[in-house]
Design brief:
6-stranded mixed beta sheet, 4 domains, elongated, about 425 residues
Length: about 425
């Protein structure tokens, strides 16, 4: 583990510098477990999936029509000698000059190499031997409309790589290969609590100087989206003893400890001080808005990662997306994820300040030329959750820019649906 991370402590870090420090500390993935197919959605694959069969298993028709051996446009009429249906193949060799009716997905009969679609054919032979004619034989190409065995996935080939977060299409692919289960990384257990004497649980009477605990539920949603198991510790008062006790307890049971509030320079902000007494503080100030007071460290003998997020709701979510999310994905063994960043044209002036990274809540759309345009959601206060609700992206303005003029290009981070 790179101890240089802990040299930062009191220094204000840039976003890229803090992210690089965290990457050096990324943990090994969680242990694996084998789960049934129906329980795999959203889990991260621990081992490669290799195909036990060719996909498709047989060379087959890509559409409805007739299958035949094509030798050229000189012959345009063929005798029909049978049919091949999906799940009921035509047995026997189809001789030259003969054809077989075939449906989509049906195995190609022996002796045939080409499929001609139904709409391009004329059929005859009512009351006699059935036949098929091809009005435009010059348009036929040998081998057309044929799907070859193994052209999608060859037997023994890697179908899904380890480190993939499984989506519905992956489950379908696993089923198509005959798999009933798979080895995936265990879900990380995240201990979560809010701090602050002013923080009140939803459903309770709101004190005159109180606020409802929005952060914990926003974070619960983000953690659930990432497939984490959450140990919800509720709300802790701003008291050194209770915070230190909670950190020690959580560090003994969880794979990560996540809090919101209590990490700034306020006199009653005990989380940062409790972290120093229970573990090692790496850094706690980031040159970003919102999200400047962000603490990271390691707790106890198990060196459990700790993230202390800001108390303002938007700041907590932005900091989570930039720093906590990559750590949790690494902890689950996800290897092919990168934060999606796209370029968009600013449709309005955007405020920023040189020397820090600004994350504005934005709404992006595409125009008829395939370009992305973005505007802010309006007021950008770090406590205004409505700005996150209205947004479909974050507008990321790097520290070298003091402002963005209409028509200039900016970077956006689209929210994952």
């Amino acid at each position: 583990m790179d101890a240089s991370c802990f040299d930062h402590d009191e220094r204000l870090l840039g976003v890229d510098e803090a992210a690089a420090a965290l990457r050096k500390l990324f943990p090994s993935p969680m242990a694996s477990e084998r789960l049934p197919l129906a329980s795999l959605l959203g889990r991260v694959l621990a081992t490669d999936i290799r195909s036990p069969i060719d996909v498709p298993q047989n060379t087959n028709a890509a559409l409805d029509g007739v299958a035949l051996a094509w030798s050229g446009p000189e012959r345009s009429r063929f005798d029909i000698v049978g049919e091949s249906l999906a799940g009921c193949r035509h047995d026997g060799l189809v001789a030259d000059g003969h054809a077989v009716r075939i449906t989509t997905g049906a195995p190609l009969p022996a002796g045939t190499d080409t499929v001609i679609m139904q709409e391009q054919l004329e059929f005859g032979g009512d009351g006699g031997s059935p036949w098929v004619a091809i009005p435009r034989p010059q348009a036929v190409r040998r081998g057309q409309n044929v799907r070859h065995a193994g052209e999608d996935i060859a037997q023994g080939a890697t179908a899904i790589q380890a480190g993939t977060r499984l989506k519905s299409q992956h489950l379908g692919l696993l089923a198509s290969l005959g798999h009933t289960d798979a080895e995936v990384h265990r879900r990380p257990k995240v201990a979560l609590f809010s701090t602050g004497n002013e923080v009140t649980a939803p459903g309770q009477p709101l004190p005159r100087d109180g606020i409802y605990d929005a952060n914990r539920f926003s974070l619960l949603g983000l953690l659930a989206t990432l497939g984490c198991e959450v140990q919800d510790l509720g709300i802790l008062a701003d008291e050194p003893g209770s915070v230190e006790q909670a950190l020690a307890l959580a560090a003994g049971e969880a794979d990560m400890v996540l809090t919101s509030g209590g990490v700034s320079v306020g006199q009653a902000d005990w989380v940062r001080h409790a972290l120093r007494s229970s573990g090692r503080l790496c850094f706690w100030r980031i040159a970003m808005r919102p999200g400047k007071p962000l603490a990271f460290g390691l707790l106890g003998e198990r060196t459990v990662p700790f993230f202390g997020l800001p108390g303002n709701p938007v700041a907590a979510m932005v900091a989570f997306l930039q720093f906590v999310q990559p750590w949790l994905r690494a902890l689950q063994g996800e290897t092919n994820w990168r934060q999606l960043r796209l370029k968009a044209i600013a449709d309005e002036a955007l405020s920023s300040r040189e020397g820090r990274t600004d994350y504005l809540r934005g709404i992006y759309v595409g125009d008829d030329r395939g370009r992305l345009h973005v505007r802010s959601t309006g007021q950008q206060g770090s406590g205004m959750l409505t700005s996150m609700v209205a947004a479909n992206c974050l507008i990321e303005i790097d520290p070298s820019r003091s402002a963005v003029a209409p028509g200039e290009t900016v970077t956006i981070q689209p929210f994952e649906s």
